[in-house]
Each structure stands twice: as structure tokens, then as C-alpha cells.
User: Fold this.
Amino acid sequence: AQTVTQSQPEMSVQEAETVTLSCTYDTSESDYYLFWYKQPPSRQMILVIRQEAYKQQNATENRFSVNFQKAAKSFSLKISDSQLGDAAMYFCAYRRPQGAQKLVFGQGTRLTINP
Amino acid sequence: EAQVTQNPRYLITVTGKKLTVTCSQNMNHEYMSWYRQDPGLGLRQIYYSMNVEVTDKGDVPEGYKVSRKEKRNFPLILESPSPNQTSLYFCASSFHRDRDQPQHFGDGTRLSIL
Assistant:
């Protein structure tokens, strides 16, 4: 079974600085999808960024980018120019390409932005 | 507006009193799923449905039931709730064929079982 691990329960960063959230996963499959979700205090699950395993290029979305290391099974999220609105719980998630579309989530990392 | 609607958003109840959390989506999605979120554990799948009348267990199905009589609705039923089912619950949906597209989540239901 696939597993996803986020080893940093909490992180903090100064406003305008850069922070990297770590995620590792375990799978025997070669094709899959990886996601980062943001959960602000409102509890909504908001998609931040996605990565397809067969694409070598790292995904980017404005201030958010990933460092996808397929061989190391690592999928870290970098947030540049951190803003107060980035404060949230962040979840890394894995999804298989075939079969049921279950998302396997990591434990989450709570990010605090210090003004 | 495309959305997944869960009700209620908050519920405090007592052990053994049957309850239903409703989930409805207006995007004609085939796939629907329920997750529960607990501190330190992330989100874990309870049940899922690939289409009408097709449901299956996820990773933590004990104590829950679901049904999929209509494509848009996927209610979560707790026949005899217990305190260990106190949690934050999310319903999600997506098209089955669009594997690179993210699932759409509802706004969550906070359940407290006393």
C-alpha cells in the first residue's frame, strides 16, 4: 500500500521569506499523481499544485513550486515571498493513475507566517 | 457554481443516536468519496463510490455506511455513533476518467460524539 509521510508537523517562516515543506512517499508504481493541498482555518481543502510522475519538469504555480525527485520519492513544496495568507495546514497527497481515485494523504504540516 | 455541499457543518450528538451527513455535488461527477481528518493522521478514506449503486470500502470503514442511489448524492450514515468517530469529515467528488484533475472537496463537517 502506498504511504505518504510529512515529517514536519509545524513550520514557521518570516513574511517575505522562502520556506520548504517536505513530503516523501512510498510506492512501487511508476506512474501516479502528487498534490499539495492547503487547508486554512476555514477548513476548506484548496489545491495548491499538482505533479504527474511521468513529467520530469517540476510544477510551478506563481509563488509555489515543487522539487520532485522521483528516484528518491520526494515531493517538497517551496513557497517564495511568504504572505500572511499562506498560513495554513498543508497536506501532501498521492493518487494512483488506475483504479479508484483514492487520495493518500500525509499527516500535514502547519505553517505559521511571522509578520 | 460548481460545488460539493455538505450538511450539517457542525453537529454535536450523543453515543448511539443515528445520524446522517449529506453530500451533494452539481458537477455530474461519477466518483464520490468520504474522508475523515484526525490530528497527526491527515485524511483517511472511509468509503467511495465509482457510480450509482457502486460503493466500496476505503481504509477506515468500520462504523459507517453509505449509499449512492442518485449520481449527485452520497450520504454518510453513522448507525450507532461512538466517541471515536468524533472527527472532521470531508466529501469529495471528481470525474472518473480525468485522473490528472483534482478532486473537489466540500467544506467539511465537524462531528462531536459525546
Notes: Chain B has no helices and eleven strands. Chain B touches chain A at residues 31, 33, 35, 40-45, 48, 50, 56, 58, 88, 90, 92, 94, 96, 99-100, 102-103, 105, 107-108, 110 (CB under 8 Å). The first strand of chain B starts at residue 4 and ends at 7. The two ends of chain B are 36 Å apart (CA to CA).
